[in-house]
Amino acid sequence: MSRTWTSRRSLLTAVGLFAAGVAAGCTSRETDERLATQEHPVTSASGDFTAALVPDGVELHPTIRDAEGIEVWTDDLGHVNRYVPGVVWERGADVLWVLSADHGNASVHRQDDGTWAKVPGSEGMPQDIAELAR
Which residues constitute the signal peptide according to the record (predicted)? Predict the structure, then answer.
């Protein structure tokens, strides 16, 4: 076998492995049941709230609703369908994470007065959620 053939075969193998790794990474995020979608709202740790992606024209808005279905928070930033954000609750707290390639990551916390506040950035992000953000 020639050296050129071996090099090409090695290159094709490396490209194939890379593509498989990328596909596996995308698939695991897309199939994670903790992620909210338009069709799949997810419930907070307390069970008192749900989060979903709500369409508004060509944009999606992460939204939190209470147990009665009343909207208590919606992201003021629209996310285009091409960059669907990850929307996931922390496992042990009513803290929602919006994982966005479009606008950056943010957490949404309930304040003492009952309102919800969005905090930009990844500070304090649990490891299991950080893995989804990749």
Answer: 1-19
> Is the whole-model pTM more than 0.90?
no
What mean pLDDT value characterizes the chain?
Answer: 82
CA angle 7, 13, 14 (to 5 degrees): 90
The residue count for the chain: 134
Q: Of 122, 18, 117, which is closest to residue 131 (Cα–Cα)? A: 122
What secondary structure does DSSP assign to 11-42, as a single string? HHHHHHHHHHHHHHHHHHHHT-TTB--SS--E
Residue 60's closest CA among 40, 83, 41?
83
pLDDT digits (tens, 9 = 90+) for 41-89: 999 999 999 999 999 999 999 999 999 999 999 999 999 877 889 999 9
Rounded Cα–Cα distance for residues 92 and 77 (Å): 26
Query: Based on the number of CB atoms within 10 Å of its own CB, is 13 exposed (0-12), middle (13-18) or buried (19 or more)?
Result: exposed
Q: Give the residue carrying structure tokens 């309102």.
A: 115
For residues 19 and 39, give the distance between their C-alpha atoms in angstroms, rounded to a whole number.
Answer: 28
